[in-house]
Structure formats: C-alpha cells, structure tokens
From TrEMBL:
It is found in: Mitochondrion matrix. Belongs to the 3-hydroxyacyl-CoA dehydrogenase family. This is 3-hydroxyacyl-CoA dehydrogenase. It comes from Arion vulgaris. The keyword Nucleotide-binding does not apply. Its EC number is 1.1.1.35. It catalyses: a (3S)-3-hydroxyacyl-CoA + NAD(+) = a 3-oxoacyl-CoA + NADH + H(+). GO terms for cellular component: mitochondrial matrix. GO terms for biological process: fatty acid beta-oxidation. GO terms for molecular function: (3S)-3-hydroxyacyl-CoA dehydrogenase (NAD+) activity; NAD+ binding. Pfam families: 3HCDH, 3HCDH_N. It is an enzyme of class 1 (oxidoreductase). It comes from the Eukaryota. Residues 120-217 form the 3-hydroxyacyl-CoA dehydrogenase C-terminal domain.
Length: 220
C-alpha cells in the first residue's frame, strides 16, 4: 500500500502515468468522454486500456488520438481472487503496446489470454449467450431455472448455473450487455432480447444486489 498514491482528479492522475486503466460505468458515451479528456492530458507515450466487459475497445479508442497505444485489460470479479485477465487488441494496437499490456497483466500475478476486439471478448462472448439461451429454455417452457442450473452444475461441471450466474452478475447488467450487442448486430439470434429478462429488470429485480432476480435472496 505504501507504493499507492490516491488521486481524485483524473486529469492530474494521468499527467505522469505510463499506463491508464479505465474501469468506470459500462456506457460508451461516458467512457469516450473520459478518454477524450485524458488523451489531452496524458503524455504522448502513455498507454490507455479499458476494463470494459462488453463494449468494443475500438469504439472507445475512437475518442482518442492514440489508437496505436490503446487496448483492453479485462479483469474479472472479484479481482483479488480471479486469476484471469483478457488482453485485447484492436487492429491499430501496436505490438509494443500489446506486449506492454500483457506484461503488466503477468506482473500483477494474472494469467493472460490474448484476444482480438469482438463482442464480450472470450469469456463473456461465451457466457452471455449461454445465459440468454438458458432464459429462452424457460420462455419456451422446456425446464425451470432450478433444473437448468442443477443440470449445468452436475452435468457440465459448472460451479454456478446460468441463472445463478445471471443473478450474481446482475440482471440489469446482463440486459445492458445483450441490448448493446443486439443494437450493433440486430440480425444475430445470439443477441436477441428476452421478454422475461426485460420484465425482471423493469420490476427492479436485478438479482443478488436487489434481493430478487430469478431467485430470492436474503440481503440481511
């Protein structure tokens, strides 16, 4: 902790930074606004990275004049426990930048995997459609959330079923991700919105954090 310096002024914080990692709200416009301001304040050699879990790195980088020094570093919650970080590059990311990002991930004790800029990168590209297809099974009356979770845990060896995972991630977050992908790729059935998910979010049933989602929780 003695090596950490806290700063509440983002502009001041980046003026001597070698690497800037953004981890703010999952909103493209907000991220672009932040990076546009940081781009003017940070040294020319400073590398920018986003911790976004679902937004295109290229779309975020478009707000800056350093696309060759821009990439993704996607950590997983809870960060102290989860060992993985996805290192994402856009076509303009230089080899030097990408190597620096991967080296940083390894230096902080993470296992790194490389990925090109694509919706959800590796993990969420697989997990979010899985959760959505599980929800569609319920919508079609095929099985209950409880039985689907049990089947995936005992039959596929998953530590959490898709509905438990959706409640953990947050149904509002899951909806935000799938809506964004559907808007960008409207013809892809993987990203088709769900009536059940939309209804739960409309009712403020976000999962664990609100006390109710597909399951009911005691938040006492």
């Amino acid at each position: 902790m003695s090596h950490l310096t806290l700063q509440t002024d983002a502009i001041a914080a980046v003026k001597s930074a070698d690497l800037v990692i953004e981890a703010i709200v999952e909103n493209l416009d907000v991220k672009k606004k932040l990076f546009a301001s940081l781009d003017k304040a940070a040294p020319q050699n400073t590398i920018f990275a986003s911790n976004t879990s679902s937004i295109s790195i290229g779309d975020i980088a478009a707000a800056t004049n350093r696309r060759d020094r821009f990439g993704g570093l996607h950590f997983f919650n809870p960060v102290p426990v989860m060992k993985l970080v996805e290192v994402i590059r856009i076509p303009e990311t230089s080899d030097e930048t990408f190597t620096a990002l991967e080296t940083f991930g390894k230096t902080v004790g993470k296992k790194t995997v490389q990925c090109k800029d694509t919706p959800g990168f590796i993990v969420n590209r697989l997990l979010v459609p899985l959760m959505m297809e599980a929800i569609r099974l319920v919508e079609r009356g095929v099985a209950s959330p409880q039985d689907i979770d049990t089947a995936m845990k005992l039959g596929a060896g998953y530590p959490m079923g898709p509905f438990e995972l959706a409640d953990y991630v947050g149904l509002d977050t899951t909806k935000f991700i799938i809506d964004g992908w559907h808007q960008k790729y409207p013809d892809d059935p993987l990203y088709k919105p769900s009536e059940i998910l939309n209804k739960l979010v409309e009712e403020k049933k976000f999962g664990i954090k609100s006390g109710e989602g597909f399951y009911t929780y005691s938040n006492k």
